[in-house]
Design brief:
Layout (H helix, E strand, L loop, with lengths): L1 H20 L2 H9 L21 H13 L2 E12 L4 H15 L5 E6 L2 E9 L2 H11 L7 E8 H5 L1
Antiparallel strand pairs: 1-3, 1-4, 2-3
Length: 155
Amino acid sequence: MKYITLILACALAFAASAARGQSLDAFKRRLAEPTAGSALFDPARVTVCEHGDAARVVAEAAKSAQRLSYKGYRVCIFFDNGPDARSGAMAAKQLFEETFPGTKVYMVYESPWFSVSVGNCLSAEEAVILKGRVAQKFPKAFLKNETLALDELLD
């Protein structure tokens, strides 16, 4: 019986010391101690230096990123979800490009709708004028709000 108690006590002591080695504090201490290889060299250091203009440049970039799109208008000349909607949209786009060669045309598929819209108008008045120009060829044309990307406006 004494022999079993002694073995059990030794096993508990060994388990307790192993558990202590796995605690978070012991892990942090072990990480903080240099290893044998790193003692031969200088300890690693990280130095962070911020350039004087870095904060200003990042703030300006964030502001300009917010202005890469504008609220505007386009004239929708085709809007359908029927079985022939794709061919109708392509025909409307081709007819518009032939009739009004200087105006941008956008064909979009947003399930289940095909739409063809034209122009990059920043004001409603500009969009109404464009709608008046296209009304003879596309009598069902209507205005719609769009978010216009900056690169679309520059083209």
